[in-house]
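Protocol step 4 of 6: structure prediction from sequence.
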Amino acid sequence: MDIIVIQPDTPEENIRHILKKLESKGLSANISRGTERTIIGVIGDTSKVTDDEEHAIKAMPGVENVLRILKPYKLASRDFKKTPTLIDVDGVIIGGNKIQVMAGPCSVENRSNIVSIAEKVKSAGATILRGGAFKPRTSPYAFQGLGEEGLKYLAEAKKKTGLPIITEVMDPRDLEVICEYTDIIQIGTRNMQNFRLLLEVGSVNKPVLLKRGLSATIKEWLMSAEYIMSRGNHNVMLCERGIRTFETATRNTLDLSAVPLLKQLTHLPVVVDPSHGVGKWDLVAPMSRAAVAVGADALIIEVHTNPEEAFSDGEQSLRPEMFTQLMDDLKRVAQAVGREI
């Protein structure tokens, strides 16, 4: 018993009665209200619910059907929600027919630089500004980000351009200050299975972009999304950013087959990060076009005015003029597959 389908026009008191029954069994629930049906997703170890107990719940007033989901991820599954999830970020809709583009530098370096880049990417057609204030680096001696100072610079760039902000959280202790400034919380690849962090972001009212782990399977990735959703935050996006394989010619192997596969398995929006996927600026454009062709709902692309002087990831960053050309190319690809940018 993982999903309880509620009959149309069922009184709220009946739904509350069902929820109390679940609580008495040590279970909790998430409610999804659609235009025709209300679905209750049952959270907890439902394997302990006996057949008799399941039949008793099915007989309760307002219950149309009781279903079991074989997949370990429930709330993220298409079985729980048939229609695609649309995430509204300050009027920017992620998951609809329009493909959104997030763009900006890997790291926020100073005020003038982030504002300049923000103005340029907006002019080219980007709808969300990316920039890292807290940076996870392989070396402890590399630039780690400006912290709250960087967040303030992002806020200034937003004020000038109107672009919503996405930035990464690495530590639950930084979540409160990040939520003051950002519109989307990014969970980086190295934290995909930082379950404490996932539960914390699941408790805040901010959309979350969850990047795939370096060697994570699709199932593991969706289970990490389930951690976030189990706390009540269903505004989760899945970001394919390349996985580690035996190939060394590119930074990672960008698994674009994951995009249409996820569309079958989950209702959550799917984002592609071609910059980290390939690690080379001259491969970002073709992989971006391919990502749009296979059905990505959004792209996240690194852009820097002076890549050779960038504090991080300059080798995979596009110059603003290259990004502008790419946006023009993407519009034609989107049109060819019945979408728009």
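Step 5 (inspection) to follow. The chain has a mean pLDDT of 92.
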